Amino acid sequence: MVYNMKSIFACEKKNFSNWYNEILKTADLIDLRYNVKGFIVYRPWSMHIIKKIYQLWEQELEKNGHKPVLFPVVIPPENFEKEREHVKGFKPEVFWITEAGDNKIERLALRPTSETAFYQLYSIWVRSYADMPLKCYQSCAVYRYETKATKPLMRGREFLWIEAHDVFETEQEAINQVRQDMKITEKIFGQLSIPFIFFQRPAWDKFAGAVNTYASDTLMPDGRILQLPSTHYLGQNFSKPFDVKFIDKDGEEKYAYQTCYGPPISRTFAALISIHGDSKGLILPFDIAPTQIIIIPIIFDESKDIVMKAVEKIKNMLNNYRVEIDDSEKRSGEKFYYWEMKGVPIRIEIGPKDVKKNQVVIVSRVDGKKKTVKHNNLIKEIKYMEKEILKKLKENADNYFNSMITDANNVDKVKKVLEGKGGFIRVNFCSIEKHGEKCAETLKEKTGAEVRGIRFDKKEKPNGKCIVCGKKASYVVWVGRAY
Amino acid sequence: MVYNMKSIFACEKKNFSNWYNEILKTADLIDLRYNVKGFIVYRPWSMHIIKKIYQLWEQELEKNGHKPVLFPVVIPPENFEKEREHVKGFKPEVFWITEAGDNKIERLALRPTSETAFYQLYSIWVRSYADMPLKCYQSCAVYRYETKATKPLMRGREFLWIEAHDVFETEQEAINQVRQDMKITEKIFGQLSIPFIFFQRPAWDKFAGAVNTYASDTLMPDGRILQLPSTHYLGQNFSKPFDVKFIDKDGEEKYAYQTCYGPPISRTFAALISIHGDSKGLILPFDIAPTQIIIIPIIFDESKDIVMKAVEKIKNMLNNYRVEIDDSEKRSGEKFYYWEMKGVPIRIEIGPKDVKKNQVVIVSRVDGKKKTVKHNNLIKEIKYMEKEILKKLKENADNYFNSMITDANNVDKVKKVLEGKGGFIRVNFCSIEKHGEKCAETLKEKTGAEVRGIRFDKKEKPNGKCIVCGKKASYVVWVGRAY
User: Fold this and answer.
1) Maximum alpha-carbon separation in chain A
2) CATH 3.40.50.300 fits B286-389, yes or no
């Protein structure tokens, strides 16, 4: 075998933007040549992964008492305009249907998010305390007329997500749900080895209509922040205009408390690609890889039959996994590079010598280590590697994430860090309420950093003055440049 | 136990329209109270079933070499208007997006079907003979501004389907694909016990842009026809305007041959509900029932603990099935009626006497027959019933279907049958080419019957004259009133 050929994907990850665009193309993930700006085409390798990500989340939501529903893609203005803050936030981004056939019709919004679709019916479904908790989710695409630069899978005009909409009798139950949403996020990202932190967003960056927004942020390899799932405590902000009320046990009519949760499927995929990939291409976590194990027969004319027989036998042994055989005409080295680029977590090589010794060679995508394994140890070894790969991916991802958190006690340092490695910067800040917004604007103007909010999982005590206005700091906020 | 209560769903199926609307509501399948005409809300019991129907089809399509993709919901006019017949057929039904935020934007069609989205990229993806067959599918909703009366799940302005789009080197391969699409349909409808016949549609009722359309029809309980999946041989009608061409083995540049296939998920669900349901409510085939087995403990205060222990044990024994326990406060009779109405195929009752004898009582939803079964025979019995239920559903459905096929040798008889039981009527007909259209129009005016085409699976030889114009008949066509 000749190994001196170049990898078919030799794109340094240091130039992340270039690397990202190249991998989308080389691995046949996304086609950007569809002729409408901001709309992308998902190719098969993507769709297999996307479907698996959907499954993980749907299963977890259902385990936690959510039920699947599907609401229309269109929202009439009478719904859309019911909650004042919500309409103010989303109106600039709404696509409007105004014609059908040759007729003008009453305008309909293409859903940018579905609070105002769901809650019209929730006001009918919820009658008494016995109808709650009401917890439904839908898996769908949403549409936003983004004016910021779009980036495939990270920010587009059509993106895939899940939205869960929950209704409760009491404030406390709603707040518990917000915590459960965070736990669900934690569980899924555990299976995908994606590091993140949940922040309570500042008042000026809340979901339009929410009382409070909690959003998880991760870091891309270029040090920019990518927002992942967010969960919103809506209080009674929607239940009042939408009339979601119930007769309580005491016979009184009360407005319900609501939450909503939005796991972004396209973005989770973007995070996966970006965080785990390397200069050979994709690296996919075991759970969501369309092909988990690729078997490559090392074929010479005289031993072809015995090798292929062993290959089939090994494939059958592994029938609990998603296994493919690459018996194409390509040279073995070329096959190795191809499947490495596609991110398949485990490669098995079987040559005539291996057949004689009842063994195979196993290679892990995450560190390239080779092992020779006897047939009767194979299943055990795969199970071990499955965990090892996830662990290694997590180690690598966590190491990077943790190395990208910097403290700064003045605006200049923030700027300097962002001009260098980027990442999260912790600073003392006057307020995350409305009156902190001005400092946030100043900071953004001077450094490009956005205030992502305060950590939710642990209280961080400020020690000193707001780095912008110099007043007494009430919070430690995390800032950074974001996608 | 008291059995004298009324069923919670006592709606005679004879008045099908009434029965259908009532079951959608009582079984919490569809909510029609969303405030945009022709758009419906899928509730959890529906969505669980819909997801299972999608799964069946997706698995089968993938087994047959199709790969999942996802194209944008919007189609620019430059694509949409490329194939003359296609645009003529679909233009009256297209929803147009013309504004975004406060801006007028270049109009975009909301996909009514996606040929003109897919084929723009297919012209890039297909370069040489080695790129074919290219077989992709997407699971999505499509949007049509229906002017005919809408009927939930059967005809709406938003409906769920799959669309598969395939490209081949030769005409023969494309025609083989059409046959494979029929086989896939047959397999899925076998799992759902839905009877159907594939017809070649007459020239005037082809898919807009197709060379030939083959569509499967089933019958609703009111004797009206419901169209199910259709598969279309497109020839080079789209490959030419969309420039889907390839360099063949001989070095020549050639246009490809195409097919498309559209399994309608909402309609399959409508057919399931309508064909199998009875005066107690839904009856769901085992494969797609959200709950396959409902266990109802027969509880008296003094024996509650030992019964619940047995119930848990039985549930664990059945962990390969989707099993629920109804231990609510309702009376047993009420529970029986409720789960019968929801269509759960198997009910298990466990009372204190059963516990003592290591037995349970099993009831089949399809015929209401009761059996007492020992614990150690339970799995075997469930496996047997699984097949029996499917068989019974098939028998019932086939018996009805076959009883609704009538021959007629004149227009009056067609009219009389349609005013009576309805169904399919076989008649001699002059032509299914363009020049038969006038006779079809006359027939429709006089009787309300549409010409559904000629059987695809077997040649039927006409014997006499066209029942409308009296000229020599070239075909036996099937006619009837359709949804």
Assistant:
1) 85
2) no
Task: Assign domain A16-276 to a CATH class.
Answer: alpha beta
| Per-residue model confidence as pLDDT tens digits over A59-81 | 999 999 999 999 999 999 999 99
pLDDT tens per residue, range A13-60? 889 999 999 999 999 999 999 999 999 999 999 999 999 999 999 999
Could you report the predicted ipTM of this complex, rounded to two decimals? 0.96
Which residue of A lies nearest to B266 if distances are taken between CA atoms? A70
Q: How many residues does chain A have?
A: 483
**H/E stretch holding B74:** strand B74-75
CA B30 to each of CA A128, B46, B324: distance values in angstroms, whole numbers, following the listed order: 21, 7, 22
Question: Nearest 5°: CA angle at B148, between B47 and B188?
Answer: 40
The CATH number of A286-392, from 3.40.50.800, 3.30.70.100, 3.40.47.10, 3.40.720.10, is: 3.40.50.800
Structure tokens belonging to residue B383: 């496996």
Task: Give domain limits for chain A.
Answer: 16-276, 286-392, 405-480
Q: For residues A272 and A107, what is the distance between their CA atoms, to the nearest angstrom?
A: 38
Dihedral-angle region of residue A440 (phi above 0 means left; psi in -120 to 50 means alpha; beta otherwise)? alpha
3-class secondary structure for B388-424?
Answer: HHHHHHHHHHHHHHHHCEEECCCHHHHHHHHHCCCCE
Question: What is the topology classification, in CATH, of domain A405-480?
Answer: Translation Initiation Factor IF3 (3.30.110)
What pTM, to 2 d.p., does this model score?
0.96
Q: Does A145 touch chain B (CB under 8 A)?
A: yes
Q: How many C-beta atoms surround the C-beta of residue B325 within 10 A?
A: 17
**A460 has which bridge partners?**
none
Test B99 with A101 for CB contact under 8 angstroms.
no
Search chain B and give the residue with CA nearest A135.
Answer: B44
Identify whether A241 is preceded by a cis peptide bond (ω within 30 of 0): no
> Class assignment of domain B28-276?
alpha beta
Residues of B whose CB is below 8 A from A66: none
